Amino acid sequence: MVQVDLAAQTVREANREIKRLAAEGHDIEVINPDARHHLGVGLIHPVKVHIRGSAGYFCAGLADGARFEVDGNAGWGLADNMY
Fold first, then answer.
1. pTM for the full model?
2. Where are the beta strands (DSSP E) in 1-83?
3. SS3 content of the chain, % helix, strand, coil (to 5)
4. What is the pLDDT of residue 83?
5. For residues 33 and 53, is the Cβ–Cβ distance under 8 A?
6. Smallest Cα–Cα separation from 70: which of 29, 27, 18, 19?
7. What gap in Å lies between CA 78 and CA 38, rounded to an integer?
8. Which residues pair with 52 in a beta bridge?
9. What span, in angstroms and rounded, lies between the C-alpha atoms of 33 and 27?
10. Cα–Cα distance for residue pair 54/65, rounded to 1 Å
11. What are the φ/ψ torsions at residue 75 (nearest 5 degrees)?
């Protein structure tokens, strides 16, 4: 499992990295999410994403084949349009 640390990058940078890692077949652990919005949006690969903390709104939106686990709270729109 590969870690993506949101304390060290923006959500846009983290999502870009998450998509790249998912395409390479890695499962992903997101640390220090700090309830940021739009985490893991648009994933289309069979990947497991474990968010260690709270996620903001629209986490895991528009995803197809991904599995998400959130250790804390999540805002509205969690897994919206997830297939």
1. 0.93
2. 2-5, 28-31, 48-52, 67-70
3. 15, 25, 60
4. 77
5. yes
6. 29
7. 9
8. 31
9. 16
10. 22
11. -80, -175
End-to-end CA distance of the chain: 23
Report the C-alpha gap between 24 and 80 in whole angstroms. 24
The stretch 46-64 carries a mean pLDDT of 96
Instruction: Please tell me the distance from the alpha carbon of residue 73 to that of residue 25, in angstroms, as a whole number.
Output: 27
Amino acid at 57: Y
Segment 27-47, tens digit of pLDDT:
999 999 999 999 999 999 999
Residue count (the chain): 83
CB neighbourhood size of 7 (10 A) = 8
- SS3 label, residue 20: helix
